[in-house]
Amino acid sequence: MNALPINKIFLAGFAFALTHWKKIIEISVFPLLISLPFLMVVPELLGLMEQLFSGGELPEYMMIYLVLFFYGYITLSINMYRLVMLGEQSVSGFMPVLDVNKIIRFIGLTFFVGLITVIPVVITKMPLLQLVVTFLIIPITLNFVAIALDQPAKYKWNLSFTTHMNLFFLQVILPALVGMLFAALANIIGLGPILGWVVKVVLFYWTLVTLALCYQLVQANNSSQNP
User: Fold this and answer.
1) Contact (CB, 8 A) for 80 and 27
2) According to the model, what pLDDT value does residue 49 have?
3) DSSP per residue over 151-180, as a string?
4) What is the pLDDT of residue 204?
5) Do the beta carbons of residue 164 and residue 189 sit within 8 Å?
6) Does the pLDDT value for residue 55 go beyond 60?
7) Could you give the 3-state DSSP secondary structure of residue 195?
8) Would you call 73 exposed, middle or buried from its count of C-beta atoms within 10 A (0-12, 13-18, 19+)?
9) How many CB atoms lie within 10 A of CB 85?
């Protein structure tokens, strides 16, 4: 049984953003402010990474900026998931997430997903393998929403193949295709950097919303099958 209709979730993601745009902006202010130092030095990162790989060290301030950026990302992600699942009354606009247990669980899952998708590529030098591994573990990403809701993590979701495939398409393939399409369009019309960043921001919020919607539908489907 398919619990994740692509067309409905695709449209619902944008509909939710349009109807809750004020709250989304409100909960984005704090994460954006603490992420600004990192975002302002993004153009320097390539040079810094080359310096790191050549045996140098990253400037001390860069690690501070990176930690602040990651904390801003966690705060925004958790608040977005709670907004979708629990409504506007569940999130406070200008307050950071201070639940240490929730933050640690979110960080742990982020590093787990990151390592398990990157290590096989580093070992085998086969980029296509990253796509295969990401497909296999994509249900685990539903736990990001569970963490935001203070629910226990599940590492076996028992999704049907169609549901599994649709989740992968919505969270990985579709954002990548849209990003590449607009990147090509931006180059044609001469608005590369500006349009590219706008699309990346829109896709970032859209994937957060749709992951929460997918979690909601998967949980509802499991409940109907196991009353």
Assistant:
1) yes
2) 55
3) PPP-S-----HHHHHHHHIIIIIHHHHHHH
4) 94
5) no
6) no
7) helix
8) middle
9) 18
pLDDT confidence bin for 146, thresholds 50/70/90: very high
Q: Do the Cβ atoms of 83 and 24 come closer than 8 Å?
A: yes
Q: And the tokens for 36?
A: 């600004």
146, 215 in Cβ contact below 8 A? yes
Q: Report whether 157 contacts 139 (CB < 8 A).
A: yes
Instruction: Please tell me the distance from the alpha carbon of residue 215 to that of residue 73, in angstroms, as a whole number.
Output: 20
pLDDT at 53 over 60: no
- State both tokens at 21: 């745009």
* 8-state DSSP, 20: T
Residues 12, 212 contacting (CB under 8 angstroms): no
Task: For residue range 169-217, list pLDDT tens digits in order.
Answer: 999 999 999 988 887 877 777 666 777 788 889 999 999 999 999 999 9
